TrEMBL record:
<feature type="region of interest" description="Disordered">
    <location>
        <begin position="394"/>
        <end position="418"/>
    </location>
</feature>
<dbReference type="InterPro" id="IPR008979">
    <property type="entry name" value="Galactose-bd-like_sf"/>
</dbReference>
<keyword id="KW-0732">Signal</keyword>
<dbReference type="Pfam" id="PF21254">
    <property type="entry name" value="AGA-YXIM_GBD"/>
</dbReference>
<keyword id="KW-0378">Hydrolase</keyword>
<feature type="domain" description="Beta-agarase/YXIM esterase-like galactose-binding">
    <location>
        <begin position="28"/>
        <end position="117"/>
    </location>
</feature>
<feature type="signal peptide">
    <location>
        <begin position="1"/>
        <end position="23"/>
    </location>
</feature>
<dbReference type="InterPro" id="IPR013830">
    <property type="entry name" value="SGNH_hydro"/>
</dbReference>
<dbReference type="GO" id="GO:0016788">
    <property type="term" value="F:hydrolase activity, acting on ester bonds"/>
</dbReference>
<dbReference type="InterPro" id="IPR049033">
    <property type="entry name" value="AGA-YXIM_GBD"/>
</dbReference>
<dbReference type="Pfam" id="PF13472">
    <property type="entry name" value="Lipase_GDSL_2"/>
</dbReference>
<dbReference type="InterPro" id="IPR037459">
    <property type="entry name" value="RhgT-like"/>
</dbReference>
<protein>
    <recommendedName>
        <fullName>Lysophospholipase L1-like esterase</fullName>
    </recommendedName>
</protein>
<feature type="domain" description="SGNH hydrolase-type esterase">
    <location>
        <begin position="193"/>
        <end position="359"/>
    </location>
</feature>
<dbReference type="InterPro" id="IPR036514">
    <property type="entry name" value="SGNH_hydro_sf"/>
</dbReference>
<comment type="similarity">
    <text>Belongs to the 'GDSL' lipolytic enzyme family.</text>
</comment>
Length: 418
């Protein structure tokens, strides 16, 4: 069925990035080559994004319009091959996004990603003449926060997840997008992620992380704010004020998932492990004091870690902190080894190099983390998507059967921390 949301006019206001998210009025866009109805902004394939206009398709990724006649909102849509991007200037915050997908005279298959390839909707299929509406909640952010600014690396400064707009990627075998509704979601639960290259939103194919697959597994009303970055350790994330940004913006009842170890273990000081453990314990206590819910995640193994441990004592240190501070623990270190053994001769199909995963590998790692959430006693478990099923890491999905549309942006440069 098509949501009534796409029939109820709502006024648009100028898009002012300086406004707080809650001050932004709902926005409604009607895609296609024909006119629209009251309350919608008509968007044709020729509408390229400019800062002055505040919305449009990203240059170089314009789709094409198709029109089936009839209803001005449902009858026309945009589609394309290989993925295309639509951006809207917005202030930081959480937003409910509802998309109307499908073709009144054909089939469609649409995957939606947000910002830097963050998976929101996976392969939404419609039959001949069908349209469906799907809703998800997305977090967008900027480096500034109350009292400071994140110290971005030069490499990060052009990334979609740090700019002043929301960018949606529409991809799949035949993406068909008829309409889009964006509404501030100030009451959404935010799940913050802190970590390294195996957690961050990797901006380019073929690299991927579990953090950017994570949003797909939650219902609308949960927003994933991925503050991890390649090459980061706990210490460097503190120094760059990534942790401070999370602490400044989180609210009581929000979650903070923390996964460090890969880069921390590279420190050569004799007391490096002790410093890591003390620092992690201090952070957990601070989060708990402020009413947030920390979730500690032991680092997944490297490809060489199937039969031997490559992470020294760092997973055990995370476990000790979780036990001492009574924080929820997800033992991804153990689950990843089960996963790698289960993959057997297909282990290479999950990795891009010895540390970093590709789309398939990160999807499987994300399923491990989601399984940890599902088994926990956290209220967050009740917010998992309805189609989330139990996952046994020792029985992974088939790499050959994994169908996932690659984004049209590629860079073979290895992430920091390799």
């Amino acid at each position: 069925m098509v949501s009534d949301m796409f029939r109820t006019p709502m006024p648009l206001i100028p898009l002012l990035a300086a406004l707080p998210a809650y001050a932004v009025e709902p926005m409604k866009f009607d895609f296609g080559g024909r006119g629209t109805t009251a309350g919608f902004t008509a968007v044709t394939e020729a509408d390229v994004y400019t800062p002055e206009k505040g919305y449009g398709f990203d240059p170089g990724f314009a789709p094409r319009s198709e029109d089936r006649g009839g209803d001005p909102v449902k009858g026309d849509f945009v589609t394309g091959d290989g993925g295309f991007y639509f951006s809207v200037a917005l202030p930081p915050g959480n937003y409910d996004v509802t998309v109307l997908l499908g073709d009144l005279a054909g089939k469609s298959g649409t995957t939606v990603k947000a910002e830097s390839r963050r998976l929101m909707l996976e392969n939404v299929v419609t039959g001949d003449g069908q349209q469906v509406s799907r809703k998800f909640t997305v977090n967008i952010r900027q480096p500034d926060y109350p009292g400071g600014r994140v110290g971005l690396k030069d490499r990060e400064k052009g990334y979609l997840h740090w700019d002043e707009k929301l960018t949606l990627e529409f991809n799949g075998p035949r993406p068909c997008v008829a309409a889009l509704d964006i509404t501030p979601a100030p009451s959404a639960t935010t799940v913050y992620l802190l970590g390294d290259s195996t957690v961050t939103d990797q901006p380019f194919e073929p690299w991927n992380s579990w953090g950017q697959m994570f949003p797909r597994f939650f219902k609308a009303g949960v927003a994933i704010s991925n503050n991890a970055e390649s090459g980061e350790s706990l210490g460097s994330s503190l120094s760059a004020r990534r942790v401070a940004k999370v602490v400044a913006e989180m609210r009581k009842g929000d979650y903070v998932f923390i996964q460090f170890g890969h880069n921390d273990m590279k420190r050569k000081e004799a007391d490096a492990l002790q410093v890591f453990e003390v620092g992690l314990s201090k952070l957990v206590k601070e989060l708990q004091t402020k009413g947030a819910i920390p979730v500690l995640v032991t680092s997944m193994e490297r490809k060489a870690g199937v039969n031997k441990d490559t992470l020294a004592g760092y997973p055990d240190a995370v476990k000790r902190v979780a036990e001492n501070e009574k924080a929820t623990l997800i033992d991804l270190h153990a689950m990843s080894r089960e996963l790698y053994v289960g993959l057997g001769e297909n282990l290479d199909a999950a990795f891009q190099d010895g540390t970093h995963h590709n789309n398939f590998g990160s999807y499987e790692i994300a399923r491990c983390v989601v399984e940890g959430v599902r088994k926990s006693k956290l209220p967050l478990a009740a917010m998992l998507a309805d189609d989330v099923k139990p996952f046994d890491p020792s029985k992974p999905d088939s790499a050959a059967d994994f169908k996932y549309p690659a984004s049209p942006v590629k860079n073979m440069t290895k992430p920091d921390g390799n």
